[in-house]
Design goal:
The protein is an alpha/beta fold. It has 11 helices and 5 strands, in the order ααβααβααβααβααβα.
């Protein structure tokens, strides 16, 4: 150590030491830049009801899990969060929106309204609830994707005429992407639904994710 100290103090080594220190400090921002260039996984939250929660299915069979798998297969670094609660109406989703947004998602997929229709709740209430959720999320800089729903045929033409336009109207008002009907290709097909004829089975969820993924990729 004594000999090394004498060498470092020698004037003939001063330029070398200065050069070494300079290289070291130049390398630090280069390493930081390289680290920061790594893509951060995109955080997508699906706010929904039993169709999101995966009613009657294992967690890995639910829509958010299958969507995450499909997006990763498309080489998108994403984390998809399941914020589905079985039985939720648009009012219930509206009530817990702040809690969902605390996780700071980049994208919020809103899949709500099926239970409003099944219970025959006033369409105007569903419209106001969805409108408020979209407004609050976009004000926080979150990209919102709206998944549309359609009222069952047995509720009558009058109810359907008031309920079904809610989604395209709000998508146009807020200028956000709309997936017209979340159950497209699955609704009414016994082989893709559970015994209740309402909730998709594992194959049904796979079909929804297969159809939804390219739509989502076009808007990310």
């Amino acid at each position: 150590m004594y000999r090394l100290g004498r060498i470092c103090k020698s004037t003939q080594y001063i330029p070398f030491v200065r050069h070494l220190v300079c290289i070291t400090f130049l390398a630090i921002p280069m390493l930081s830049c390289r680290a920061s260039s790594e893509p951060r996984p995109l955080k997508i939250t699906v706010l929904g009801d039993s169709l999101t929660a995966g009613y009657g299915l294992d967690a890995e069979q639910a829509f958010p899990a299958r969507l995450q798998e499909a997006l990763r297969e498309a080489r998108w670094p994403v984390t998809v969060i399941n914020a589905g609660v079985s039985g939720d109406t648009t009012a219930a989703g509206r009530a817990r929106l702040d809690w969902v947004l605390q996780d700071e998602p980049d994208v919020l997929i809103i899949q709500l309204g099926a239970n409003d229709a099944l219970r025959g709740l006033p369409p105007q209430g569903a419209r106001e609830n969805l409108d408020d959720m979209i407004t609050r999320a976009t004000e926080k800089g979150v990209q919102v994707i709206l998944a549309g729903m359609q009222a069952p045929m047995n509720l009558g033409l009058g109810y359907r005429r008031e309920f079904n336009p809610i989604y395209p109207d709000l998508a146009e008002k807020h200028n956000i992407p709309l997936y017209p009907f979340f159950l497209e290709g699955v609704a009414g097909k016994a082989e893709l639904n559970l015994a209740d004829g309402i909730h998709p089975n594992a194959k049904g969820v796979e079909e929804i994710a297969r159809r939804f993924t390219p739509f989502l990729l076009r808007h990310l």
